[in-house]
């Protein structure tokens, strides 16, 4: 009897282990890698999905044709649907794709600026954050124009596949500081947060419109590096898409943008700046530049206090860096001259930081996270919510201070003067 | 007389801690945030302090009647009739807890992992496990708990360590949450989080000495409180309180956040093992306790004939809530907020009556 029971139990277990109801065969699923969301024409939203092509013998052919795109031996397809919601688009997609759409490997959710400015982000994200197959770690981008176009043109670059391309592209946030690594979790957490307002990464297709090929040559004017929005970098060729700068939200409505340069300042103030290269005018010869690789020396010191209802903020950021180049050849590598560059850089960052803070105050969006410190002055949630930090941010008086130290001078510790013959002087 | 088998203190501690923790992996952290906001991490310590007082009462009761379990003590103190009512009430609450925990597990599993699988199939699978474990007996459940407990503890700590990159300390502010008074009241009401610790009074005979009850009870309580404190603090540091209020299963959401490049992500499948194993221990333990109480009430010597009928009752009760909102906001809410009456107040009444009437047991 025991043996019969044991065999019967084993049979029951065999059925249970098969996971028959929720079994997901890899051949029956279409793994969505990118999701694009625009305002629709035939319905409220236009949803674009990008997924690997399903070709006989695997997706390794790399052949082009129709809506396919090449990349590292893999080919991809896109599909765009107008629907009243994300879930409706999902169902409609399944009427033409003979595979179940699966979001386990989704890399980017791209929302058009148009939707973000119309305050429809919350409305569209509501079903996405409830969908257990879409992970909170999925990155969220705001596309300058069409999200569908961005999704279509985001293709593997340099032999990778789209997944690797997306991962590596996002890694550049740490390398440059010109945008941030922000996920669905970040946006959703911030949208409901009484501590600060949300930001999202700006993305765009770069059509090369700012790349001027004919005309007068650049003179000695100074341009702050990275002071562009996504899509505006003067460049030609390379990847068709770029991530640069941040979108600023008030709740779920996009109300402004920060350039790549301002995004770096934001990162510095939040204590998440890893490193970045700065080009500033040489303090002694402003027509020439000095290149510095800048890092965070220690976390910023932020103090918040109140006088009546008015908030006051003191922000001190600590940076350090190495000299990468001195175009003028001036011998700054002495204990007397190094502070000249240090003070020049401090003045530069302070001026730019003040401008960036003022910009966010005009938008009344605390993206600098001063609210994280302000909250410590409140004992209970009722008091904190009654004060409503997000509404008072615009009234805050903010004092900034920058401390910068040069640590190394690169492979050269002395700058020799370039020698000219008498007639060339 | 039902023979439960003997096991050591470590096994007993493991089974009790797992029984306490299992339910916290589901919707409880969400409810805690909704009740006390940012103060959940120390609210669980307030609950632990209340539970410690409750357990102390239970311990004194057991010490007064050495060699007896709580059902026998109720009979000795109140007489057969009132003792029966007290024990029966305890059995009903435990059975209801097991059923609601079962349903909660199934609902969460259905939301996150098996969306297409019918709930009855999931409930049935777990009910079969409960039946098998009940046949195997408490000693085996406890011994397995010790083995699984180490793995689960390691998994739990790894999970929190991996998620530590999301910790932001500003999220614990405002420190008093919705107010200190509210936190104290909620901490008191929700002391039944640790109610399972008092189950040691039901299987007290499985331990070797009365001192073991004290050791097992307090050690389990301290470990469970420490783990709950760490878990609740971790969740508070990861999700701002408005976000925390929204999440159905915050700990699962934490696991799904973990992302260290292309090669280290999607670790929630590992977390599923912790979820499943802890549930597979907690529900059978509660169910087995019900069987023990029932067999005592009706003087049944062999548990086996009542295992299957009770599993049918368990499944039936678990199907009562019509949806997850009703389950969480009615059944689980009242079980957690009023469970302390059964776990701590009934033994307190028994101890008071025993002291007033000078009733005492004798060592057999």
Query: What is the chain-wise order of helices and strands of chain A?
Result: HEEEEEHEEHHEHHHEEEHEEEHHHHE
Spatial sequence of strands, sheet with the most strands of chain A: 4-5-3-2-7-8-9-10-11
The pair of chains with the biggest contact is:
A-B, 35 and 39 residues
CATH architecture of chain B: Up-down Bundle
Please estimate the helix content of chain A.
25-40%
Number of helices of chain B: 13
DSSP strand content of chain B = under 5%
Shape of chain A: globular
Amount of beta strand of chain A: 25-35%
Present the secondary structure layout.
The complex is a heterodimer of chains A (425) and B (364).
Chain A: H1 2-17, E1 29-31, E2 34-39, E3 45-52, E4 68-69, E5 76-83, H2 86-93, E6 100-102, E7 108-112, H3 113-117, H4 121-130, E8 139-143, H5 147-153, H6 162-176, H7 184-191, E9 199-205, E10 241-250, E11 253-258, H8 260-270, E12 275-281, E13 289-307, E14 310-326, H9 338-363, H10 371-374, H11 381-387, H12 389-392, E15 397-408
Parallel strand pairs in A: 1-6, 2-7, 7-8, 8-9, 14-15
Antiparallel strand pairs in A: 2-3, 3-5, 4-5, 9-10, 10-11, 12-13, 13-14
Chain B: H1 9-22, H2 28-36, H3 40-64, H4 70-112, H5 119-136, H6 138-163, H7 180-189, H8 210-238, H9 241-244, H10 250-257, H11 268-297, H12 304-318, H13 324-356
């Amino acid at each position: 009897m025991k043996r019969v029971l044991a065999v019967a139990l084993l049979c029951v277990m065999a059925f249970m282990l098969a996971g028959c109801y929720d079994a997901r065969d890899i051949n029956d699923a279409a793994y969505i890698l990118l999701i694009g969301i625009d305002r629709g024409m035939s319905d409220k939203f236009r949803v674009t999905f990008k997924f690997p092509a399903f070709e006989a013998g695997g997706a390794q052919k790399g052949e082009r044709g129709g809506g396919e795109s090449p990349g590292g031996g893999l080919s991809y397809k896109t599909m765009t649907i107008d629907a009243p919601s994300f879930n409706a688009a999902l169902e409609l997609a399944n009427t033409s794709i003979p595979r179940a759409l699966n979001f386990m490997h989704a890399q980017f959710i791209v929302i058009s600026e148009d939707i973000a400015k119309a305050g429809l982000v919350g409305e569209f994200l509501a079903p996405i954050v409830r969908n257990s197959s879409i992970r909170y770690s999925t990155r969220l981008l705001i596309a300058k124009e069409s999200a569908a176009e961005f999704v279509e043109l985001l293709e593997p670059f340099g032999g990778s596949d789209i997944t690797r391309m997306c991962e590596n592209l996002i890694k550049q946030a740490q390398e440059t500081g010109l945008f941030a690594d922000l996920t669905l979790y970040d946006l959703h957490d911030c949208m409901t947060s009484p501590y600060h307002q949300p930001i999202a990464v700006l993305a765009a297709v770069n059509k090369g419109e700012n790349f001027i090929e004919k005309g007068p040559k650049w003179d000695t004017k100074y341009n702050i590096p990275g002071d562009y929005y996504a899509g505006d970098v003067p460049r030609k060729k390379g990847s068709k898409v770029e991530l640069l700068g941040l979108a600023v939200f008030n709740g779920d409505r996009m109300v402004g943008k920060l350039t790549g340069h301002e995004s770096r300042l934001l990162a510095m103030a939040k204590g998440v700046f890893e490193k970045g290269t700065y080009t500033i005018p040489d303090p002694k010869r402003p027509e020439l530049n000095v290149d510095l690789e800048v890092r965070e020396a220690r976390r910023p010191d932020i103090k918040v206090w109140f006088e009546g209802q008015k908030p006051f903020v003191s922000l001190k950021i600590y940076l350090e860096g190495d000299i990468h180049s001195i175009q003028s050849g001036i011998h700054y590598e002495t204990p007397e001259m190094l502070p000249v560059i240090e003070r020049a850089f401090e003045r530069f960052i302070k001026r730019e930081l003040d401008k960036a803070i003022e910009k966010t105050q005009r938008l009344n969006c605390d993206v600098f996270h001063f609210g994280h410190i302000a909250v410590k002055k409140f004992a209970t949630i009722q008091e904190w919510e009654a004060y409503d930090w997000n509404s008072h941010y615009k009234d805050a008086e903010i004092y900034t201070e920058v401390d910068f130290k040069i640590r190394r001078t690169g492979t050269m510790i002395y700058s020799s003067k370039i020698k000219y013959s008498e007639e060339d002087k | 007389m039902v023979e439960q088998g003997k096991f050591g203190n470590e096994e007993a501690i493991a089974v009790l801690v797992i029984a306490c923790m299992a339910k916290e992996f589901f919707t409880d952290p969400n409810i805690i945030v909704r009740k006390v906001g940012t103060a959940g991490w120390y609210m669980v310590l307030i609950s632990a302090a209340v539970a410690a007082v409750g357990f102390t009462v239970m311990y004194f009761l057991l010490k007064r009647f050495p060699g007896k379990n709580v059902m026998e003590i109720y009979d000795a103190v109140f007489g057969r009739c009132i003792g029966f009512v007290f024990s029966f009430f305890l059995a009903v609450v435990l059975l209801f807890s097991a059923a609601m925990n079962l349903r909660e597990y199934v609902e969460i599993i259905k939301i996150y992992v098996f969306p297409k699988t019918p709930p009855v199939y999931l409930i049935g699978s777990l009910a079969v496990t409960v039946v098998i474990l009940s046949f195997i007996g408490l000693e085996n459940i406890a011994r397995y708990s010790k083995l699984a407990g180490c793995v689960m503890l390691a998994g739990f700590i790894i999970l929190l360590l991996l998620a530590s990159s999301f910790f932001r300390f500003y999220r614990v502010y405002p420190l008093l949450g919705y107010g200190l008074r509210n936190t104290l009241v909620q901490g008191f009401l929700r002391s039944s989080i640790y109610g399972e610790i008092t189950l040691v009074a039901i299987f007290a005979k499985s331990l070797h000495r009365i001192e073991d009850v004290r050791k097992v009870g307090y050690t389990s309580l301290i470990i469970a409180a420490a783990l709950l404190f760490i878990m609740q603090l971790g969740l508070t540091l990861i999700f701002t309180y408005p976000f925390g209020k929204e999440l159905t299963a915050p700990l699962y959401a934490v696991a799904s956040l973990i992302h260290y490049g292309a090669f280290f992500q999607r670790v929630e499948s590992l977390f599923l093992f912790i979820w499943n194993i802890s549930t597979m221990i907690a529900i059978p333990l509660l169910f087995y306790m019900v069987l023990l109480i029932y067999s005592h009430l009706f003087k049944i010597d062999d548990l086996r004939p009542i295992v299957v009928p009770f599993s049918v009752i368990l499944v039936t009760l678990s199907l009562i809530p019509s949806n997850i909102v009703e389950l969480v906001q009615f059944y689980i809410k009242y079980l957690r907020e009023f469970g302390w009456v059964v776990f701590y107040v009934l033994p307190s009444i028994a101890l008071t009556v025993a002291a007033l009437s000078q009733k005492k047991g004798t060592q057999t």
